[in-house]
Amino acid sequence: MSRAALDTPMMRQYLTLKERHPDAILFYRMGDFYEMFLHDAELAAPLLDIALTTRDKGKPDAVPMCGVPVHAADGHVKRLAELGYRVAICEQVEDPKSARGLVRREVVEVITPGLVGNPEALDARREVSLAALDARGGAGEVGLASLDASTASFQATACEAGDGLPRALLDELERIDPRELLVPAAAREALEPALRARLPRVALTALPAEAFDAAAPAAEPDGFAALGGGAAARAAAAVLRYLADHQPFALRQTLRVRGYQLGDALVLDAATRAHLELFENGEDRSRRGTLIERIDETETPPGARRLARWLARPLLEPAAVAARQDGVAWLAERDRLRARVRRALRDVRDPERLLAKVARPGATPRDLVALGRSLAALRATAEALAAPDAELLPVPDAPRPAAVGAPAPLPELEQLLAEGAAELGHVAVEIPAGAGPSVEQDVADQ
Fold first, then answer.
1. How far is the C-alpha of 274 from the C-alpha of 268, rounded, in Å?
2. Cα 295–296–299 angle (5° rounding)?
3. Which residues does 214 contact at the CB level (< 8 Å), separation at least 6?
4. How far apart are the first and last CA of the chain?
5. 242: exposed, middle or buried (C-beta count within 10 Å: 0-12, 13-18, 19+)?
6. Residue 423 in 3-state DSSP?
7. Is the distance from CB of 89 to CB of 109 less than 8 angstroms?
8. How confident is the model over 109-127, as pLDDT tens digits?
9. Cα–Cα distance between 230 and 312 in angstroms, integer?
10. Cβ proximity of 169 and 144 under 8 Å
11. Does the chain have fewer CB atoms within 10 Å around its N or its C terminus?
12. 116 Cα distance to chain centroid
């Protein structure tokens, strides 16, 4: 291709942005389309089943290109990420009407196999995890951290290193089933055979040693200091650095990291999960006929994900088992209360992923409205749980167990969301009277 074909203001801008993201397919915003050029276009067109064309058609040095409409981009981005590719989203960052010359553009986020884009394109019942493994070889600890960026669920653990990666850690990795795994660049070659044997579909991403520096993380969410600066903290630091480099806006949502021990729960290896058909059947690996399909009567996406986590990690501590059983028994014995709670939950969408979507570039007033309405619907859940028992049962009742938590009110947030949506979208938003409940982890942890 001749130099002249690339020596236009637009192509110079494109090539400058592409140089900053050489390992990603660049979605370059042009009006109502995202365009891809050169090798990106030749790579993406057959994967997305879209037409490959050229700029300056008919010329011998025409530039290969293809494109997708902005309104349909989420599905295409999801497809590329599932195939293991990175996608850099380049947006126009100034009003074309006021721009002098070429409109300024910047990459606003990079979607990777483990860092999803619009969470609405995901299966609401499943987590999509990014994990990091701090394994430096020799004696000491091996650290593991995992993050579902669509819900900000973030946890880290560590165990003693042995001859190779510990089996318990590999079993835990299989349970998490990350789409993308971050490893130290110096250790990738040594780690890859064992990791590929357990996780054949995972996208392995090598990071420099400084990304695993627990003394200088990109952010310090609540709980990070409690990890103690060891292998778990180093793995968590790598996740935070990767998040800061690719989707920095998501750091505001990643408010805490939970440390845990592998011995806190029974680790079920892949063979056991497959034999019991907990999540996938043996015929076509779908959910049909599995245990999770039979028992999942949840009303909300966060509830479905929480049930799957509980099933994948059965508790071992007798006190924790007894507390959960007390909560289940209390609800099972109260048909009318349980029916009221379920009716209230039907109006709750997916607050966890709505929070992630609101934090992303391109969030709309509609997203704020949806989040506000979910908060309002959760208030009815709290009221159902807090209703006097005399209204529900004809006999004296026991107090509600601690495991059955009620959402705490967040009236200020409800008000702010409603006002923000109305201001941005010029829409009328009803602000329900009373207190709005919290969607914080105090409910999700039950």
1. 10
2. 145
3. 227, 229, 230, 233, 234, 236, 237
4. 61
5. buried
6. helix
7. yes
8. 999 999 987 787 778 888 8
9. 26
10. yes
11. N
12. 6
Read off the pLDDT band of 139 (50, 70, 90). Answer: low
Cβ proximity of 183 and 282 under 8 Å: no
Give Cβ neighbours of residue 278 (< 8 Å, ≥ 6 apart): 268, 290, 291, 292, 311, 312
Return the C-alpha torsion angle 69, 70, 73, 77, nearest 10. 120
Tokens 């990690």, residue?
313
Name the residue with tokens 């058909």: 277
Between CA 279 and CA 290 the distance in angstroms is: 6
The two tokens of residue 57 are 């058609």
Task: Give the span between the Cα atoms of 107 and 22, in whole angstroms.
Answer: 12
3-class DSSP state for residue 7?
coil
In angstroms, the CA 398 to CA 419 distance is 41
How does the average pLDDT of the chain come out, rounded? 86
Task: Tell me the two tokens of residue 119.
Answer: 């969470």
CA distance 298 to 294: 11
The long-range contacts involving 14-21, CB below 8 angstroms and separated by at least 24 positions, are 17/88, 17/90, 17/105, 17/106, 17/107, 20/107, 21/86, 21/88, 21/107, 21/110
Q: Which amino acid makes up residue 416?
A: L
Length of the chain equals 446
Q: What is the pTM of this model?
A: 0.84
Cα–Cα separations (whole angstroms), residue 197 to 27, 170, 202, 235: 33, 10, 10, 21
Residue 362 Ramachandran class (φ > 0 left, ψ -120 to 50 alpha, else beta)? left
| Beta strands at 86-92 and 105-111: parallel, antiparallel or unpaired | antiparallel
Q: Are 372 and 429 in contact (CB under 8 A)?
A: yes
Q: What is the pLDDT of residues 60-92, one digit of tens each?
A: 678 899 999 999 999 999 999 999 999 999 999
